[in-house]
Fold TetR/AcrR family transcriptional regulator.
Amino acid sequence: MPKKITSEQKTPDDAPSSAAVALGRFPAGEDPIKRGQILDGAKRVFMKMGYDAASMNDVTREAGVSKGTIYVYFQSKEELFAALIDRAKGQFTDTVRETLAQSVSAEDGLRRFGQAFANRIFNSEMIASMRILLGVIDRMPLLCQRYLADSPSNARGVLKSFLDRHVADGTLEIADTSLAAKQFIELTGGIFLKGRLFNEIPEEITPEEIHRVIESGLKVFLAAYACKAEAGSHPG
């Protein structure tokens, strides 16, 4: 009778071959397509029902998977919700990182960031997701803290790194780039974020108004943090 190999005894030869992965055969709980299918279903359920009313059974029906399958990937509704929030945060962070990489100057990058952030507010489920987060903040405080924490997986952390680079090249003079990143987001997107969160601002807003707010915030930010020689090179 063949001897059973435990997880501790496995060698690299026991791992799935690249050919198996190419054919779509993954270890239990590691198929990215199946995982994405579950998350897509969970997103529709949470957006429609909210966190408390939604159940894992609702997600299995919406995602088209069995109950056994969903628990292979996510052990609880809390874990599933956290993964959904992390995915959305990661997708936006990737967008911001790419946007900033295309910038030709600190001013251009900041303007691009402001526009990307406004687009996120008005053209995604960001506001609905934040309302759900606020509803569970007392029960899941660490998730909410992780959503906002400065890190490479957070858009604010990416902005901080962008500011660090321009401090290093002498374009900006900032003693605390973490604080400055928060300030820039407040100056250019805070009005939109809070206005949408509490329904003070309508779902649709003119591009001209978005541009006006971003340019005003950018002007204030650069007045405080642009190096004097750099600031002097920009008229007005």
